[in-house]
């Protein structure tokens, strides 16, 4: 069974928690057919950058009914499974040489195999070398009409200005504990497990802004098979129990 955070990855725009400033603008642009050709998504880990990149890919290539993405057509399913031939996720950390970029440029020029848009998601974009960035400049400036580039990074300050100025930059933010607990509550319901709201609220705080961390913590609790109570979360994570802390604070 895949990890929760893989199964729980939103396949519809409504399922993306927070990030309204990104989501609303992108949704509107896509529904009016105004898709950009180069985006930069920056922000902390686990807050929805890859998720949003995949949603753009799905929306652009969905062959199902409106609203797009339908999440269920062949194209959407292939993007979800990571097997769509025209949606390429490239780890820039390990493909950062000038040769890699040359290779990429040649492939970019070819038409999409399934006739729709070709989407390149360059993860960890800050890891590319300066020479590789420079080799990419021209392609980013004028990619063929069927290509969308999405660069994702946790360190936007390392992206050189000439690249920055060619991309529409969206900054993702840390999620609030309430936003995280809210999604977790929907997930446990879907799994048919009951959980104390206080347990989910605690996980929401411990996740420190990252939905992925919240989901992994929840997964640990589910794997243990015990009821999801606040005490169980505290014990599993080796935290001082709230009851013990309260006892310490008592004046007698
Ligand atoms: N805003 C969000 N709304 C709902 N779920 C989210 C959100 N952000 C992250 N998630 C959940 O966390 C998982 C990881 O998110 P994602 O891959 O989009 O993170 P990321 O921002 O690309 O992080 P990284 O910088 O580590 O690549 C997703 O599969 C999804 O389940
Ligand atoms: Mg990512
Ligand atoms: Zn679809």
In short:
This protein is an alpha/beta fold and 252 residues long. It is 47% helix and 11% strand.
Description:
There is one protein chain. The protein has 252 residues and is an alpha/beta fold. It contains twelve helices and five strands. It has a five-stranded parallel beta sheet with strand order 2-3-4-1-5, with helices on one face. Strand 2, helix 5 (98-109) and strand 3 form a beta-alpha-beta unit. Bound molecules: adenosine-5'-triphosphate, magnesium ion and zinc ion (ZN). The site of magnesium ion (MG) has 4 residues, from helix 3. It holds the Pfam family DNA_pol3_delta2.
Strand content: 5-15%
The ligands found in this model are: adenosine-5'-triphosphate, magnesium ion, zinc ion
> CATH homologous superfamily name of the largest domain?
P-loop containing nucleotide triphosphate hydrolases
| Strand segment tally | 5
In quaternary terms, these chains amount to single chain
Poorly predicted regions are: none
CATH architecture of the largest domain: 3-Layer(aba) Sandwich
Helical element count?
12
Q: What is the count of distinct domains?
A: 2
Percent of residues in helices: 40-55%
Cα Rg: 21 Å
Task: Determine the structural class based on helices, strands and strand pairing.
Answer: alpha/beta
**What's the main sheet like?**
5 strands, parallel
Q: In CATH's first tier, which class of the largest domain applies?
A: Alpha Beta
- Order of strands, widest sheet: 2-3-4-1-5
**CATH topology-level name of the largest domain:** Rossmann fold
Keywords: ATP-binding, DNA replication, DNA-directed DNA polymerase, Metal-binding, Nucleotide-binding, Nucleotidyltransferase, Transferase, Zinc
Protein name: DNA polymerase III subunit gamma/tau
Family: Belongs to the DnaX/STICHEL family.
EC number: 2.7.7.7
